[in-house]
Structure formats: structure tokens, C-alpha cells
């Protein structure tokens, strides 16, 4: 049986996942307003993905017979600036999510909560992929700087990546 402390930690993570979704929705609209439609689609795909992560955790707590507590979701920043700044914010955010997930795993190990430990391994692996993907995008953005040809190429790649994630849709 899952402990009350663990259920609370996972409920807090659910809140983080929905904040992540909200952050990506804000970045999607910002990118769309900057005519970076590929980036807007990529961030919208991330919005859907983060929402699904939150729902997956809700289902886990419910299946464990635990109480799900819902907290307020803070509004994300309204303007980030350049596409480079958007992805720098994304990497910083994903690193914070990774640390929070590791904290849950640490607690699961200390409580000998094998079910939660196993459940959270999927998220640990997912975070490795998330950070690697964003680091790769940042590397190319830094390589091209703010040259329009490079931004156009990256924007097109982001659109293709969003479609491969199965969620590519614009906000408009």
C-alpha cells in the first residue's frame, strides 16, 4: 500500500506535470505569434504529452487507493523572447522535473515501495529522452544563432518532430 507521504509527493508531481503542460501551451502560443509554426506545433505536442503524464500519475494513485490532491497551477511566464530563450527555459524546466522525479524514486526506495519505484522508472527514462532532445535542439540553435535560414530549418524540423509525436497541431 502506498504511504500518505508518497501519495502527496506524487500529487505534487501531478501538479508539476500540469504546470509543464501549461508552460508548453504558453510557449506554443508565443512561438505561433512569432510565426514559428513548427516550434508552435512542437510545444503543443509537448503540452499534450505532459497532460498525459499527469493523467498517468492520477490513474496510478487511484489504482493504489490513494487520495489525489489537486493544487493550484501557477501561470507560466507570458513572454520568453527568442526561440533560443524558449528552449533554454524548456531545458531548465525539464531539469527541475527530472530532479523532482528522482526525489520520488529516492523516497520510494527509502520506503521500500517497490510498486512506486517500478512505476516511476518509466518517468526516469522519459526525462533522459526529454533533456537529450532539448539539448540537441539547443545545440543547433546556438550553432545557427539568429540567422533566418537556420531558424527556418529548425522550425521545419520541429514541425516534423511534432507530427512524429502524434500531436502536431497549431494553436490557431
Automatic annotation (TrEMBL):
It catalyses: 4 Fe(2+) + O2 + 6 H2O = 4 iron(III) oxide-hydroxide + 12 H(+). Residues 1-145 form the Ferritin-like diiron domain. Its EC number is 1.16.3.2. It is found in: Cytoplasm. It comes from the Bacteria. The keyword Nucleotidyltransferase does not apply. Pfam families: Ferritin (PF00210). It is an enzyme of class 1 (oxidoreductase). GO terms for molecular function: ferric iron binding; ferrous iron binding; ferroxidase activity; identical protein binding. Keywords: Cytoplasm, Iron, Iron storage, Metal-binding, Oxidoreductase. GO terms for biological process: intracellular iron ion homeostasis; iron ion transport. The keyword Transmembrane helix does not apply. One of its GO terms (cellular component) is cytosol. Fe cation binds at residues 17, 50, 53, 94, 127. Belongs to the ferritin family. Prokaryotic subfamily. Iron-storage protein. This is Ferritin. It comes from Ectothiorhodospira haloalkaliphila.
